[in-house]
Amino acid sequence: MRIDVITAFPPLFEGPLSESIVKRAREGGYVEIVIHDLRAYAHDKHRTLDDTPYGGGAGMILKPEPIFECVEALQAERSYDEVILTTPAGEVYDQRLCKQLSLHENLIILCGHYKGVDQRVIDALVTREISIGDYVLTGGELAAAVIIDSVVRLIPGVIGDGESLLSDSFMEGELDCPYYTRPPEFRGMRVPDELLSGDHKRVEAWRRRESSRMTRERRPDLLEGSGGARAKTSPRSGDGPRAKDKE
Ligand code: ADE
Fold first, then answer.
1. CATH of the domain at 40
2. What is this structure's pTM?
3. Phi and psi dihedrals of 203, rounded to 5?
4. Which of 17, 164, 192, 220 is deepest in the core (most CB within 10 A)?
5. What is the whole-number distance in angstroms between the Cα of residue 143 and the centre of ligand 1?
6. What is the 107 CA–ligand 1 centroid distance (Å)?
7. pLDDT at 82 over 90
């Protein structure tokens, strides 16, 4: 997979894409992530990227010319599955959309900034507008980093233990259960007996129960219309690696 990011603020990506799993995925050749500085496509001597909105009002708007030039230069090299704009006005990002994006070959993510982007960019270039939640960031860069992080970890091979992906919160429409590690008792707080029992069936039943309880208590909206998907399709039934690891 290749992800091209277009931004007026490249340094914002230095941390999130250079550590941990995303770093490993890049080094291992699972994903190529290229950051493009929009300013390189601004031709006036001040390298201007924004201008005031027609009709007046506060805030600045990203100009169309540098964005068109940058996107078209990329599209001349290869075809892209999506040209995504990060904006609070987009569809709200979730694990379903994340999975969908992870199946693509080439993505462009254009980071919105200032008050917004000239509408002609959206009309002519953008195929998908995505918001990471109902709050307003100073720019679309952090949203793009969130999207990249969540997509990259779904690329097959990036996370070695497939089980840990399958049991993610949301993967089956429910929150994941609580986890414990050694020691079995810490400051008077004990690990639940079921998890110490060594009995896979008991462990599995406990995890299912806790998963359902957490979802009911915290995110009942996830259960609406799900018909209890987890109980039918749990990857944990007959599972092994994680339970075995703990023995
Ligand atoms: N830019 C500003 N706020 C945003 C949000 N919530 N999601 C995506 N891009 C944004």
1. 3.40.1280.10
2. 0.88
3. -60, -45
4. 17
5. 6
6. 18
7. yes
